[in-house]
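retry 2 of 3: previous attempt timed out while embedding zinc ion. Reduced batch size to 1 and resubmitted. Inputs unchanged:
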Amino acid sequence: MFKINAQDRAVDFLKKTIEEKSLSHFYLFYGPPGVGKMTAALAFAAGLLCEAPENYEACGKCANCRRVLHANCPNIITIKPDGKVIKIDQIRELQSYLKFKMEQGESRFFIIDDAHKMTREAANSLLKVLEEPPGGTFFILISDNIDLMPATVVSRGQLIKFNPVPRSVIDEILREKGCSKEKAAAVSLVSRGSVGNALTLMEDEEVVAQRENIIAFLAHLPTRRAKILEFAAELDANYDVPLGLDIVFSCYRDLLVWQATGKDKMIINQDFIDGIRKRVFCPGTLLKKLDDIIYAQRAISNNANRLLTLETLLLNLNDQSS
Ligand SMILES: [Zn+2]
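retry 2 succeeded.
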């Protein structure tokens, strides 16, 4: 009843802990955003709350399963950041829930989303609860940035890792949702292994337009220096720059693959094919250009001057010498 894509290891492990009754009272689900951590948390809770589980999975039909599906199950309490952080008051509220006694054999779940956003006070307060949780109580902390969490919390949890979803799987999901082949290929490429990202990008016409503009620009290289600087400024001012650089990278990846194989079907950006056919570089030059793109991506994520980095990159890409 819960669809979790390409996380077999995590899902199988959780199912096994139910089957073998080797449950931990504190799980930490971590990995990139939009890969199914929350869905897996709900599936796990439903698996334990279900009145008629099938093969240790929720049936999806009983009253309890329906409550989980409709997000009105009283045994599942979800905590999310209030503004930018999870405050100590939110953890105190959680503690007040713990005072309610449960029936024999009953389970309840506290799911803390974006757990790395707990303030230090909130984390310390939670630690006290984790030391002696009442029976039948499960904590599932979810984070896409486990490095920001206090080691004292992380070390107490059963860690469950979630991986980026492979591009082919995202591509398939998008096609099922009615995306064209070209768009699915492009969106899956820049979604960074996140189904959530891909579904947002699929609906975002602005992103589609930005991608087309970038491809059109690259297809018309080489061009005059003034044009390069103008486009760099445009990117800096109006574009999602990390996404834009992913698109640039994918185009140069296409160039390299096409020159190595000569096969159109290997090309991700099918609308870039005409641009590709007229450009010939030696492989060393292409690798150097891919390196330049990676360098720019890193520099920008490390807060280098963005406009200057984009100008330098585009001038390097425009350079015809090999
Ligand atoms: Zn059920």
